[in-house]
Fold this sequence. Notes:
Layout: H1 2-9, E1 21-28, E2 33-40, E3 51-56, H2 59-75, E4 83-87, H3 94-98, H4 110-130, E5 133-142, H5 144-149, E6 162-166, H6 174-184, E7 189-196, H7 203-214, E8 221-228, H8 236-248, H9 257-264, H10 271-286, H11 294-306, H12 313-323, H13 329-340, H14 344-355, H15 365-379
Amino acid sequence: MKNRLLVVMIGLIGLNLGAQVKKEIFESFKLQERRDVSYYFPEDYSEEKAYPLIVVLDAEYLFDLVVANVKFQSRFDRMPQAIVVGIDQAKNDLRWDDCDFEEVSGLPTEKGKMFYEFLGTEIIPYLETSYNIAPFKMFIGYDITANFGNYYLFKDKSFFNSYVSISPVLATEMESRVPARLSALDQVIFYNVIVEKEASDDRQRILQMNHSINSITKESLHYYFDEYDNADHVSIAAYGISKAFDNVFKIFRPISTDEYKKEILTSEEPVFNYLENRYSTIENLFGFRKPVELNDIMAIYAACRKKEDYESLKPLSDLCKKEFPETMMGFYFEGEYYEQMGEPKKAFKTFEKAFQMEEIDFLTKDLALEKIDALKADFGY
């Protein structure tokens, strides 16, 4: 019954996903107000996929910036496709009423508490019941609305997995409360603070908060403090959002040359473990399985050869047979594994299988044939 009521709250229920961006009037029971809400959906939205959710306050200013970054970065596989919801707050200075706090306690005012419930019990549940939302959720706010996101840290489990706090106007004692909550929470949290370098009323408190968070040593906390010399309080939003996305979605991107050199080649673990752990982390973090990139497989293959970790070729070949079943990659890598393990007969038969499959990347039938001919010459098969 509750879910039906949520659906009824939407003025126009059927969202045109092909339009990508849609603006609706949301009739909120919690606020007893009608609020302008914007939605962005990927053009090829599918119920077969799960999508992280990005909640954006100050949508009149930030929504288009966020959507542009989502479209650009997901287009180049630097982040997963995502659904974005933006709440308009500029009209009649609603942002100050929505996100206001008591001066003494630093806690939300009565209107702030209702706005907190509006996001947590109306907007987000509506999207979760109507669309395939992944567990990963991001909050983005600016000055007073950035501070408001911190209140979701005060639950036993943070409502959001990632926070982008742009030039925050901090509530009372927030410089100590935020570090305390980040330290106490037993879950993976990405916390981004983006600030301009020019003087502001909150600058010293932000720097104090930064110092305290930096002292937290937890693998589950990913903290980023990005300060821009040439930005002012207005331009800082455009400066910082793209960098924040880079910080949060770094692991989703294909393996870079720098990562290959500094992390894979220097690791003492088996090379294949790096790839396995990487994709397990992506699945655990974002709540869906990402198909393995050809780029990443080739990076791991190169590292296997570079480090002479030929044992890793076997699980890599098994993975390739699943991810690229029509290609010769899996059997070719398996053939190399047997070759290096001193089993030429198995290698010969496996390269023959590879020869019959489709070519991919640098792996050609000629290459497989060279391996077959070399084994014939050496062992007389």
